[in-house]
Amino acid sequence: MSERASQSTPPGKVWFVGAGPGAADLLTVRALRVMSQADVVLHDALITDELLDWAPGARFIDVGKRCEGRASTQTDINTALLECAASYRQVVRLKGGDPTVFGRLDEEIDALDAAGIEWEIVPGITAASAAAAAAGHSLTRRGVARRVDIVTPRLGRGEDPAESDGWAEGLNPQGTVVLYMAGRMSAQCSQTLMGRGFSADTPVVAVRAASWPDQRVECSSLGQLASTGLMTDERPVVLMVGRALASRTASRAEMHRADQAVRSRLGQPAASTATVEVLA
Ligand code: SAH
Predict the structure, then answer these.
(1) Are 153 and 179 in contact (CB under 8 A)?
(2) Is 16 a pocket residue for ligand 1 (Cβ < 6 Å)?
(3) Which residues, in sequence order, are bridge partners of residue 17?
(4) Is the CB of 149 under 6 A from ligand 1?
(5) Is this model's pTM higher than 0.70 or not?
(6) Any idea where the domains of the chain sit in the sequence?
(7) Phi-psi category of 68—alpha, beta or left, where left has phi over 0 and alpha has psi -120 to 50?
(8) How far apart are CA 70 and CA 83, in angstroms?
(9) Whose CA is closest to 242, among 160, 176, 146?
(10) Domain 128-278: assigned CATH number
């Protein structure tokens, strides 16, 4: 696979590195150190080019699983990881957000364990944290929300479609629910939550492309979302649902300020119109 490959070279070590939500400066210092010493970086589709600058000496392999076009299967990715670990000393598997959250990490770890390859995880900032920061909210709030559930309604292969509402099992209106991979199912998810005791006026904040230049924060309620759904495109979205999101839901100015702060940090021009929308 590479000129560095040799029969006598011991297998390399694989670092599962959290890339954070998108912005290159939302990588941890440890991630930066590991990246800077990488021989090869296998990365997902949702990675900025800027992030890849942190690994100047590395070869890059895009193993992103895209919705359309040629997509790597999990088996392809596992195979690529094993090949890289046999050929390179320091292998970085860069995963969006935090590798331990909806990252199919276990499947890759199992493949490495089976081959006796050493690995280590470097945590990253998950989308829920980036979305909360973008919206200027805390996910927990004293006396209001003492738990945060990170959930996806998306079914994995082999899961029973009859259990398609099973994701909402045990969710509690006294907590905050953060939904991943739910953009296209936002209306259905809202109905499911209302069917499980969440009132129609429960606040919802949707953050699209958190920390990216086209970040967008939209405020709504479960009732509104159940009837209108969220406008979606190919950009990633998280939905934060719960009373903890109430205090600033009505404050467009507050979120506009957070949005402008991101733009200014990224050197983007200030938005001429607020990119914060209140649905309906
Ligand atoms: N490991 C990632 C999650 C991967 S699942 C993490 O910890 O964040 C992919 C889902 O994450 C997307 O469908 C979306 O719901 C969410 N997501 C990832 N990056 C995001 C971003 N920058 N803004 C909003 N949502 C994001």
Answers:
(1) yes
(2) no
(3) 94, 122
(4) no
(5) yes
(6) 13-125, 128-278
(7) beta
(8) 20
(9) 176
(10) 3.30.950.10
Q: Is 136 in the pocket of ligand 1 (CB under 6 A)?
A: no
What is the spatial distance between Cα 95 and Cα 135, in angstroms, rounded to a whole number? 23
Cβ–Cβ < 8 Å for 189, 251: no
1 catalytic per annotation: no
Q: Is 39 a catalytic residue?
A: no
CA distance 49 to 43: 11
Residue entry with tokens 């109430």: 246
CATH of 13-125, one of 1.50.40.10, 3.40.50.300, 3.40.50.620, 3.40.1010.10: 3.40.1010.10
Q: How high is the mean pLDDT of the chain? A: 86
Per-residue pLDDT tens digits for 150-188 = 999 988 777 766 667 889 999 999 999 999 999 999 999
Residue 91 bridge partners (DSSP): 14, 40
Token pair recorded at residue 124:
């990253």
Which tens digits make up the pLDDT trace of 101-120?
A: 999 999 999 999 999 999 99
Q: Is residue 44 among the annotated active site residues?
A: yes
- C-alpha 266: how far from chain center: 19
Can you read off the two tokens belonging to residue 270?
Answer: 């200030």
φ, ψ for residue 188, nearest 5 deg: -60, -40
